[in-house]
Amino acid sequence: MACQNNPSTSNDEETSKATATTQTCYTYTKNRDTASLSLISTGPIVTGELSYQLFEKDSNTGILKGEMRGDTLVADYTFNSEGMQSIRQVAFLKKDDKLLEGFGDVIEKDGKMVFKTLSTLKFGNSLEFTKINCK
Length: 135
Fold this sequence. Notes:
Layout: H1 7-18, E1 21-30, E2 33-42, E3 45-53, E4 60-69, E5 72-81, E6 84-95, E7 98-101, E8 106-109, E9 112-115, E10 128-132
Antiparallel strand pairs: 1-2, 1-10, 2-3, 3-4, 4-5, 5-6, 6-7, 7-10, 8-9
């Protein structure tokens, strides 16, 4: 009995690796527009912070909660702008070391703005976030 292998040890290690937490940071800069995105991933679940400072528009900062669906992050973005809290759905397509923000038609549902159809989102002429070292 003393020579018996402990199978739970290797299973625990595999579980830890499968649910490892990683942090990734991105930035967007073009002319006078900037945005930053900091993501914490635990398996398919992603949380983080997103901030937009677009020239001649109200800046907004908030938190993301969502999940990876293949190569696309789909999340709820809860943010404050002009003293009001709002929630809208956001989507980012992962392409190499970049995240491309998706845009499409939206509707209001359950008090938040959501995309009508995720499959029709456009990522071509969007904000392109570049991966950076997290601070």
